[in-house]
Write a structure and sequence with these properties.
Blueprint: H1 2-7, E1 21-26, H2 30-37, E2 44-49, E3 67-72, H3 81-91, E4 99-102, H4 108-117, E5 124-127, H5 132-136, E6 139-142, H6 148-154
Parallel strand pairs: 1-2, 3-4, 3-6, 4-5
Length: 155
């Protein structure tokens, strides 16, 4: 079905027209999918695994006392934690909400200060980095901020 094609994100880096090499950052079955949907691969084709094993896609349940929201990543303005802090402040006007920010970075003190300035320091906890799966158990909802910088880093 279309699932394999939809799940399989292929990034192609073409050296010269006509293409002489193709590199895919994808699932191990990326090359067969490419051949099925597009045609024969160039003379040189390499699959670069995405670095995630199947076990990393198993569901993670929130633990006891889990917060409502989790932000995990580098604590720097470019990554956008300040956007989430401001959103939490808005939500707190109408309901209780809690959040955990997991990570470290050059702007961590600035974000702690912003939480205080926004009056949400009691609802927001900043924690040191831990493996992602361990962090996922600390909240019921993961917020991923994708800004302009994030796209530049992934392309």
């Amino acid at each position: 079905g279309g699932g394999a094609g939809a799940v399989c994100l292929l990034l192609f880096f073409f050296k010269d027209p006509p293409t002489t090499e193709i590199y895919t950052l994808s699932l191990p079955d990326a090359l067969p999918i490419y051949q099925q949907k597009i045609g024969a691969a160039p003379r040189t084709a390499r699959v670069i695994p995405n670095g995630l094993g199947a076990h990393e896609f198993k569901p993670v349940r929130a633990g006891p006392g889990a917060a409502d929201i989790l932000f995990i990543g580098e604590m720097r303005t470019l990554k956008g934690p300040q956007v989430l802090l401001r959103a939490i402040a808005e939500i707190r006007k109408s309901r209780d909400i809690s959040a955990i920010f997991v990570g470290s970075g050059p702007d961590l003190a600035r974000f702690r200060q912003l939480a205080g300035d926004l009056g949400i320091a009691d609802a927001v906890e900043f924690r040191a980095p831990v493996p992602a799966r361990a962090a996922f158990t600390q909240a019921r909802l993961l917020v991923v901020q994708i800004g302009r910088a994030a796209w530049r880093e992934r392309v």
